Each structure stands twice: as structure tokens, then as C-alpha cells.
What does this fold into?
Amino acid sequence: MVARYAASMKTTSFDTKTGQTTFSESTPTVLDESTLLKNVESNVVGIYPRYAFQTIEGFGCAMTESACYLLSRMSKETRTEALKAWFGNSAIDARFIRIPLDSCDYSLDEYQAVEDPISDPSLATFSMERNNKYIIPVVKEALEIADGKISALLSPWSPPVQWKTAPEISENDAKVYGDFGFEVPTEPSRNFGGRLKREYYKPWAQYLVTYVQAYLDAGIPVTMLSIQNEASAATMWDSCLWSGEEESTFLHDYLYPAMKEAGLLEKVGIFIWDHNKERMLEHVDEMFETDIADMISGIAYHWYSGDHFEALDLIHNAYPDKILMHSESCGLHIPGKTYAFKPVDGPEPESTVTPIEMDFADAVMYAHDMIGDINHGMQRWIDWNLCVDRTGGPRHVLGGFAAPIVAEDNGTFEKTISYHYIAQIAHVVQPGSIRIGSSTWSDTVEVAAVKRPDDSIGIILLNKHDNDQEVNIRVSGQLSTVNLPAHTLSSVILNEQ
It folds into this structure.
């Protein structure tokens, strides 16, 4: 028996001249396919419920020190409203958070939990004081709003500086992450890369285990640990380089045994890579050449080097039992600006687009990347900062980046168009949704489809272009014609009658 569906549609529209966001709802007419309708071939989006793929566990964001600091400056009522925008049931209903271990670029300054591990090899001076100031109190408020449904990913940006080699920033890193004419230090630093010296692999493993246990003792539900944020990036902020061989040696000989001894293996899954998709496969393959496959729960990745959706397919096909997790993304500009970095002495960089157009480009990139990730095996999705301020910070280094929520100096906040796009996708792709087959006639309209926990079908449709687009949705012997205005993200829910 062929299912019959009733349809509802929601559309988020954006005016690229005024920056106005509008929301609308409609009820598409679902028709049985007559002989004529069966022959509709133009502008067709096909939905195939019989073809089921991965389960999508949910979405989330990073609770950096900077984001939590900004939230702590808000009134209790406003902070609750901002947290509900991510963790409320009627909003994104976030299920995952990411917390940096020690300082990252989105910290108020550099810090580490043990100031001098050389003079304190037993880590007796390990302190959570810095984490208790902003991060843990705000995360606990989020947990309360989310009714305890959150799982935390911990990610380190750099080991203690005393354990590292000197920086080794490459020409490619300078081009990708910004070359500002700084003289790269010749002494070990938390910043500009460098590597963990091999004689400190064992104490670093114990350092990570101590951190995980400290967060668990504080009541934060840590279920994931990545070995290193951006393992191939020597940035001007906190960073550390790892080859695949180095990372697998550290995992096999030191981290995994330390977590086993601490009784953490049943609680916390280990994730590798945590960097851009375009180099992911080579690094993972290098690691899996050694006997570490059973030690790894999943592979985390970022979006900053482009689509590379095919790399997700290759990873999934090669290692089908590993979780694929998008663990970071953000717009690469300061909110309200068209650039991320401004020279200290000089004019603002010129741009061919307006800040409003840049905001829309961010939202389009989010929707495009989320649709692509969904269609190529992604199971968990975590954004970067929950919020930033109007400088794209605060950061302990120059520059700034965007976030879905912008904290204002007067204690209020603004939801950007990116936030609304993320929220609409998350509202359709609820935790526990299963990706189903879909096809589209061209890149004019991008599409992803899921079977939701209530057995309804959710469809995401992105029209990023300047023209309206009429689309024919075909599913289970039925056809619906919907209109997608220019610059819109739309969602269609089909409920079986």
C-alpha cells in the first residue's frame, strides 16, 4: 500500500538589500500522480523513503571561555533566552557542546591548568579555577535548559608550552590562517604550532585524563575527547602539530592505556583529526595503518577548506563503524564587517560585497554545508562559538569571526540569518532522524531529506539564487509543486494520513 501524505511548508526569506528576515508558512497541495503528473520531468526533487542511511543524533555549538564570558555579562533573563535559542526544545534543541581544554583563540588570554608541569610532573597543581569562572557555570545553565540531554566534546588546542618543540609555521599555514608580518618565536609557545616532545607523551595523556575526570566530577556529561584540534594547523593562536603516525603512537601507547586505567573508556569516546575535510582521509588512513581502529569512536572534521563531501563518503565506506562528526564551522569575518583581520595601522580592507550580503553568504554556506554533510554520512554536528561580540571576539589574538548569535554591548543579543537557517534545519532534522534518499535536477535547489522520529518526512530545500524557483516534489506516488522565493531556505514536512 502506497502511503498518502499531507504537507506543511515553512520558508525563511532574506532580503540581501535591507537585511530583513521574514518567515512564512503554507500548505502545499499533494496530488496523486495521474498519467500526466507521472511524466513531469522538469525541476523535480525526488524523495525515496525506502532508501535509509545514517541516523543523525543532533546539533550543537562550542562553549568557549569567550562565549561563556559574554553570556555571563548578560542579565539572568537574557542569558536564559540566549541559551534557549540553542538548547530549547522549540529552537535548535542542541544535544552536543564542545569545550576547549586550556586556552584556545577564543579565550580571554592564554592559560593552562598546570602552570609549570616540568617542576610538577605529578600534576599536583592541576587547577580547574579558570574553567570554574565562566565555562562550567554557564554550561550547567545550558544543561538545565536542555533537561540533561547534552553530551560534551573536550578538545585540546595545545599541550603545556614547557612540553613543546619550537614553532614551525609553514608558508601554507601563513597563507591559510593569515600572515601579519609577525616574527614567529624561536622558543616553544602555545601558539604557532610546534609539537609535543615524545618524552612528554605519557604525562600529556595523564593531563588529558585528569581534565576529563575533573569535568565529569563537576557534573559536565563528557562523552567525547578529541586528541587535538586542527592537527595540521600551525596558527598564530594555540596550536600543536601531529602527524598520523605521532597521533596513533600517542593514542595506542599512552592515551588509551591511561583512559583504561582511569575507567573512562566506557564513558568517553576518542575522536581523531578534528580538522578540515580535504586532508582528513590521508591522516586517518595513516593512523589506521597501526592497530588503533578499536580505540577510536569517531572522526571529527571542520569545514574551512571547502565541500569535500566525497571525502566523507570515502571515510564512511572505509570505516563504517566510526561516527562522523562535524565539530567546527563559523563565518570568516567580524559581525557587521566583510573581513576578519584589519591592519593595526591602516584602512579597513576593501570588499566587493556589503556586510548584509556577507551575512547572507554565511547562511547559505551553513545550509549548503549542512545539506552536503547530511547527504554524505554526518551523524553529529557542532558549530563553533555559541555567540561572539561585535569585534568577532573576545580573543587573545588579533582578528575575529562570526557566530550565529551576536552579543551586544548593552547586554542584549541578535540572532543572525545564519542562526535562523541552522535552527530551521535542526527543527526538521530532529535528533534520531534517519537520512533517506533524495535527488535534485541541478544545483539550482539543494535538498536533503530525513525520516523523523514521528515517522513524518522532513525535506530541506535551499534556493540561494536571485530568482524564484518552482519545484516539483515527488514521493511515494504523489507530487507537490512548491514555490521557493529567491534567497530562501524552505522546509516541507509530510505527515502520513
Notes: The CA atoms of residues 176 and 235 lie 9 Å apart. Residues 5-52+435-496 form a domain with the Immunoglobulin-like fold (CATH 2.60.40.1180). The radius of gyration is 23 Å.
